[in-house]
Specification:
about 500 residues, mainly alpha, about 65% helix
């Protein structure tokens, strides 16, 4: 329960903790450990002696991560974290040595305490944090008081609101820690194995923690990988991100490597009712012919007409891409007929809109996977891409085309053209509640990043194939990436675009 009485002493704090459930104690301990971590983080680039052994730093980061995840999960789901807790705390203890300063010793013990869901551990972690942050402060007593005050402030908050509060209510009192954190961010920008941890920690500082399911999956990465060090853990985290993006953007198709060409290809799911699918598309074809034959405002060169022709041609045996394309056209026609009045609301145009919408609903009705994916699309929101992400997408397109058999390569070209153009239309058939039109994903965004995430997962299985001399062409050389590294960056863009990290 949250506290309505102001806590001003360690005795009051301890008495309060004794009355709290395990998850509150663990959350308090986690946040106390987080306040200690900058003292450890700075050791990644502080001295060659310290850099030589990162096991304790990594183990302490994991123990703190685990404590936060555990506090956010119902008791029955915490059992899977038990062995990970044991491995993290054991690794931290065994790695501890006289080579590390007394400050790192205290910071490490804070992470150790955070792993236990008891009031005594929460109390000990808080005291460790106060000791740790004061060690290298210009005003040690003030820094220690700041750490204690921050912990006392946490008692007024419930989970998850506790993690949505800033880690340091009075950051001006811990300027040395903010300096260490900035140094760590700079180091992480040059050493990718620490990049996740810089982003993870900053989320807590700002009161915007990373997605908890991502944190859970990182926490339970196999112990053997954690023992290999930060580079191995970073590679495993990249895989987790690709898996989660793939799950968030399902498509009723299989992405695989064509054994004949060594390139990626998309294999559509089988059509469940071929006669019905053909009948639906024939009706669309007839309605389109009627529109183009009269004075209805549509031209052969119009974007919607080109999309319809793709659905009637190359996607005729592909229910997922036919549904995506027809959904896009339906939304565009509805907007042009009923909102902007760019097209007259005459009999031919209304008939085309109706038949396209009927085709979309018919495909969804016959293919449950397609309908399920449509519901996921409707729940998504997207962010505007910064210019640097758009620049990387432009550079990545020739690589994606090189790695893909047609028509997959052609799809990427179409999708990227849509992604990099101004957002103009709504892709849905039917309203999507609680989402502004400009925040809904376009077909190209959804399809491209669904496939990119699957590419990234396949790359992990056969990276040697795709890092071949042919692919390491001039198109990649100026980027400074291998193909595998490029896909890691593209997955990160997908996370930002689809707000997976929020």
């Amino acid at each position: 329960m949250n506290n309505s009485v102001e806590i001003t002493s360690q005795d009051q704090f301890k008495d309060w903790l004794e009355q709290q459930p395990a998850e509150i104690c663990q959350a308090i301990a986690c946040r106390a450990s987080l306040r200690s971590l900058p003292e450890l983080m700075r050791l990644t680039d502080h001295n060659p002696i310290f850099r030589a052994d990162t096991t304790m730093i990594l183990a302490s980061l994991r123990a703190t991560l685990l404590s936060g995840v555990s506090s956010m999960r119902p008791p029955p789901d915490r059992s899977e974290l038990g062995s990970a807790f044991s491995a993290a705390t054991s690794a931290a203890r065994s790695a501890h040595s006289e080579a590390f300063s007394s400050t790192s010793s205290v910071a490490d013990s804070g992470a150790d305490h955070a792993a236990a869901a008891t009031y005594s551990s929460a109390f000990s972690a808080t005291r460790s944090a106060a000791h740790s942050v004061s060690h290298s402060a210009a005003a040690p007593a003030l820094a220690a008081d700041s750490a204690l005050s921050a912990a006392y402030a946490d008692t007024t908050l419930q989970i998850p609101n506790m993690f949505h509060a800033q880690l340091w209510p009075n950051p001006t009192e811990i300027g040395h820690l903010l300096r260490y954190l900035e140094e760590f961010r700079i180091h992480a920008s040059k050493h990718a194995e620490w990049a996740f941890w810089a982003e993870w920690y900053q989320g807590f500082v700002d009161g915007k923690p990373l997605d908890w399911e991502l944190q859970r999956r990182v926490a339970v990465i196999d112990d053997a990988i954690w023992e290999q060090g930060p580079e191995a853990v970073a590679a495993a985290i990249d895989k987790v991100k690709a898996e989660m993006l793939s799950e968030k953007l399902p498509m009723a198709e299989i992405i695989e490597v064509n054994p004949d060409t060594g390139k990626f290809r998309a294999v559509p799911i089988p059509i469940q009712n071929q006669p019905h699918m053909s009948a639906l598309l024939n009706q669309v074809e007839d309605a389109l012919e009627d529109c183009l034959g009269g004075h209805n405002g549509l031209r052969e060169t119009a974007g919607d007409v080109r999309k319809l022709n793709r659905a009637l041609g190359k996607y005729r045996e592909d229910p997922q891409n036919a549904e995506l394309t027809l959904s896009t056209v339906a939304g565009s026609l509805r907007r042009q007929i009923h909102e902007s009045r760019e097209l007259p609301d005459n009999e031919d145009n209304l008939a085309l809109l109706s038949t396209v919408e009927d085709a979309v609903r018919g495909i969804r009705a016959e293919h449950p996977d397609v309908e399920e994916n449509r519901l996921k699309r409707a729940s998504l929101a997207v962010q505007e891409l910064p210019e640097e992400d758009k620049a990387l997408l432009r550079d990545a397109l020739p690589v994606l085309e090189e790695l893909s058999d047609d028509p997959l390569g052609e799809d990427f070209s179409e999708d990227f053209e849509e992604m990099l153009s101004p957002r103009l239309h709504n892709d849905a058939v039917g309203p999507v509640p609680d989402l502004p039109e400009c925040a809904k994903p376009l077909m190209g965004e959804y399809r491209a990043f669904s496939r990119i995430s699957k590419f990234a997962l396949l790359m992990e299985k056969g990276a040697k194939i795709f890092d071949s001399k042919e692919i390491k062409s001039a198109r990649l050389a100026h980027l400074g990436y291998t193909v595998t590294q490029l896909f890691t960056q593209l997955v990160q863009i997908g996370w930002r675009l689809f707000e997976v990290l929020l």
